[in-house]
Amino acid sequence: MIVFVIQLLKRTFLPVFLLLLTASCSSNHVASPYLAARPFQQYAAKADAWLLQAQQSSGMLHYIYRPSVAHTIAKTRPMGQLMAAERLARLGQARPQVRKAAEAQQNAVITLWPHLSQKPPERTSTQVTLGEFALWLRVLLLQPNPVEAQGPLNRQAMTLQDSFNAETGFPEKLFPATTDSLFMQRYFTGHAALSLLRHSAAMNDARSLSIADAALHWLETQYPTSDKDHFHPTLAPWHALAIAAQYKLTNTSPHLDTLFAIADQLIDLQSDPEFPGRFFTEKGTDFGKPNVVRDALSTLTLMASLDIAIDLGNRKRQKQYRKAIWLGLDNLRSLQYDHGVVTNFDQPMKAVGALRFRHNDEMIRLDGVVFGAEVFERAAIMIQNGRL
Hints:
This protein is 60% helix and 5% strand. By secondary structure, it is mostly helical. The chain has three domains: 1-72 and 337-388, no CATH class; 113-222, no CATH class; 224-335, no CATH class. Strands 2-1-6-5 form a four-stranded antiparallel sheet. The chain starts with a helix and ends with a helix.
């Protein structure tokens, strides 16, 4: 009962307080936006602190942790570890103490899954998914010494470029190239396009830019987002984030209508009367149960869409997206473990800062914490810049 009351108070009063604070900060005081952004900086810092304390002696991070019984599930997945590796690598660029943890995790990842960066011997049956290979490229792009990493990351990018076919798209898996699941092929294609756009931005690589655009065109041709039968909230964010990255890199994109169509359909999902900020409706039960990963990625998608709507001067979309983002932030905050909520756990400090998987599931999953931190950090930046 106590936990429920705390969560209710946070859902009721937090957004009101933050909106009032933001409004009060619109005066002539230069420091005001920084004051309004501070809570979100703290939320992100708490989530990042959880990631660091979740690191094992091997360098890997706990993938699943159940705080009610202080139980860690040893099984891990490359995608989850790689998403955390990207987050730690980015943090490590500015914080030397985090860089050491990031390097330890990267070494553990590449030791366990060496095929992420090199073709396995012909005699083995080891394959790597397109998403894993693309994510490792994004990790390489964040290395502290880009000159030393230039060779490996360009080889990684070239392999990714060469795997694309204009008619069949990217394969789901590499070494050898195969596609067993069209759903996963679509999911990984968004990751691959985003990784190539990041590579193009960092290395001024025209081929990466061209193939990323072709991949986005392939997605829209094969699975037009305007057709709601093709929309899925697990797939849509990576597709949308790649389009947003293309726009930011080139100041244009032929796919903006798709980006806004995705954002609008995500808002349509955000109509749960019990938890208004989560992305789930009874109409969307075919999409599975709501969870923190989907909620965070959907919120990030709306943030990217808002940024572009502001650039284009689209006031109607700005209003729609801001409202949905604030609801999404409120929802994610209600999922984050604070000191007052973890008192019933045997080891409460092992939960503080993490985000639970969903409101009725106390489980902590690594990628949920990663993307929760990303959302809070992005919110702080947008508030500081007067965009949220």
